[in-house]
Design a protein that fits this description.
Structural class: alpha/beta
Protein name: Two-component system, NtrC family, C4-dicarboxylate transport response regulator DctD
InterPro entries: AAA+_ATPase, AAA_lid_NorR, CheY-like_superfamily, Homeodomain-like_sf, HTH_Fis, P-loop_NTPase, Sig_transdc_resp-reg_receiver, Sigma_54_int
Strand content: 5-15%
Number of helices: 18
GO molecular function: ATP binding; sequence-specific DNA binding
GO biological process, one term: regulation of DNA-templated transcription
Keywords: ATP-binding, Nucleotide-binding, Phosphoprotein, Transcription, Transcription regulation, Two-component regulatory system
Bound molecules: adenosine-5'-triphosphate
Number of strands: 10
């Protein structure tokens, strides 16, 4: 992966610039002319372009135009001759990201490149997210979240949906167990059949039989399965369901599988044990908090016909540091209140830990958020946080975090 595509015809200048950037841990690819660079200017180029203006044949302005034709959001930094202000002005008016006078000050060059790169990554990330939402399947559309745990959960849902046996979903209240059940149904070959949801404590023999009948050809989702009376556990739909006929059983519990073994008859427990999906609590995936919050904020504002307020970075950091005992539902309620401009009085996620623990939680959230934003690229994340690489890695180790967990799927 290239951070910088450097286009410069003068070999000694090219080597010097390349060395400056490589010393700053940037990955550089070089080209000696417009023609050599042209095929690399694509819409999905993960880096940015630094180009000399004066080159034999087609010059830097041609390159700028070509880059903008490939992708108007691709940042291009122009290198001008000393004192050549009119050229620089023309470059800016034609859409260059910045211009630098040669010979370049190394610090200024690296700093400008980093700014351009951060913008490039943000652009590509936003496109990727949009693509996943627009063209994605039910898991991508309905289960928001950019954390590695959320990605894993979506993959697991897809895999489980392809199976035929009963499924057990486990997660704390408000983590989205019902939503995940619906996603599994929608991803399965039974998607065109009904999805019927019942809560175990409200069921008796008659209402269970009726629910099974209504769910014919689709899925029956039983929430709080641990509260299903023993007598009814034997009346659940069978695992051996004919293709697209019968009823597939999906179940959820907030309880630990270790406790569940006590609550269920062994037959049912072992049936459900085969295909399980666990939803981690929100506090273990703070990277999802800003995305979910923004999603529900947009929704609340749209419903109430209100303008969407800005979420300042310190507000985001505070949201991420909370432990959210109500999980996604708690966050959603908070977003609603925020949209209405209501005070934070009924917030349930306020941390009660001491100062040291709270600071640790904030540090962890910031590390996760930065790694997520830089797609697991530790060097960029460390730079973003103004930390030497070693200090950054020490902190990751202390929090048990690994950059590779934050790289894209
Ligand atoms: N990943 C997610 N993306 C978008 N919305 C989510 C996500 N997870 C949960 N939600 C939302 O949070 C709310 C709670 O989800 P859901 O009702 O599925 O939780 P639950 O675990 O079944 O809760 P409970 O059993 O306590 O009712 C819902 O409005 C759901 O849409």
């Amino acid at each position: 992966m290239t951070d910088v595509l450097l286009v410069e015809d003068d070999l000694s200048v090219r080597d010097a610039l390349m060395q400056t950037m490589e010393l700053a841990d940037l990955t550089v690819t070089t080209a000696g002319s417009f023609l050599a660079a042209q095929p690399r200017l694509t819409r999905d180029l993960a880096g940015i372009v630094v180009t000399d203006i004066r080159m034999p044949g087609r010059d830097g302005f041609h390159l700028l135009a070509q880059a903008r034709a490939a992708d108007p959001d691709l940042p291009v930094i122009l290198l001008t001759g000393e004192g050549d202000v009119p050229t620089a002005v023309r470059g800016m008016s034609e859409g260059a990201f910045a211009f630098l006078e040669k010979p370049c000050d190394p610090e200024e060059l690296v700093e400008t490149v980093r700014r351009a790169l951060a913008l490039r990554h943000a652009t590509l990330e936003a496109r990727r997210e949009r693509g996943a939402m627009d063209g994605g399947d039910a898991a991508a559309r309905m289960l928001r979240g950019i954390s590695p745990q959320s990605r894993e959960m979506r993959d697991r849902a897809r895999a489980v949906a392809r199976g035929t046996g009963a499924v057990l979903i486990q997660g704390e209240p408000g983590t989205g167990t019902s939503k995940l059940a619906e996603v599994i149904h929608l991803l399965s070959p039974r998607a065109t059949g009904p999805f019927v949801k019942r809560s175990a404590p409200a069921l008796d023999a008659e209402s269970l039989a009726e629910a099974i009948m209504v769910a014919e050809g689709g899925s029956l989702f039983i929430d709080h399965i641990d509260a299903l009376p023993s007598a009814l556990q034997h009346r659940l739909p069978e695992d051996e369901v004919p293709e697209n006929g019968g009823v597939r059983l999906l179940a959820a519990t907030h309880r630990d599988p270790a406790v569940l073994v006590e609550a269920l008859d062994p037959d049912l427990f072992y049936r459900l044990e085969g295909l399980q999906v666990h939803i981690p609590p929100l506090r273990d995936r703070p990277g999802d908090i800003p995305v979910l919050f923004q999603h529900y904020l947009n929704l609340a504002c749209e419903q109430a016909d209100l303008p969407v307020p800005d979420v300042a970075p310190d507000v985001q950091a505070r949201l991420m540091a909370r432990d959210w005992p109500g999980n996604a539902r708690g966050l959603m309620n908070h977003a609603m209140r925020f949209a209405m401009g209501l005070p934070d009085g009924e917030m349930t996620g306020t941390p009660r830990a001491g100062l040291a623990d709270r600071m640790r939680a904030v540090e962890r959230s910031i590390l996760i958020e930065t790694l997520t934003r830089h797609r697991g690229q530790a060097t960029l994340a460390a730079q973003d946080l103004d930390l030497p690489r070693k200090t950054f890695y020490d902190k990751l180790t202390r929090h048990g975090l690994k950059p590779e967990d934050y790289r894209p799927e």
